[in-house]
Amino acid sequence: MISESTRSRNPAGHAGLLENVLALVSALAAFFESRFVLVAEESKAALVQVLILAGCVVLALLLCALGYVFLITGAVVGVAHLVGISWHWIALAAAGVHFLVALVLLLVARSRITKPLFRATMAELRKDREWLKNLDATNQSTN
Prior knowledge:
By secondary structure, the chain is an all-alpha fold. It has helices at 2-9, 17-83, 87-113, 119-142. The chain has two domains: 1-85; 87-143. It is built from four helices and no strands.
């Protein structure tokens, strides 16, 4: 009978609180270790996928740029042949058009970059700084 009452008061068996806490910490450590190992393995696989994706994107951009060069070259030669003008003049005109489009794009980018980004966030941060200054001032005046 004595052993039954002891067992009912201690449902974990004969282990004490310290042993149960150590067992819990050990189980949690094993759980997190297994999760970290899984994350590490998946990170390696994800890195390979990202590198392959980045390589494909870079190669696609390079091939698009080369295709564009060949398209412009073909258009210059075709227009020069149709018009009967030397291809040098047509190539210079095509270069001028490209420089003009690039200048317009740079002006658009410059007008966009002068506008501040994250206006609402910056306003909230300014309010937070003012609140902290006022809080500090009120704390110093009450002390």
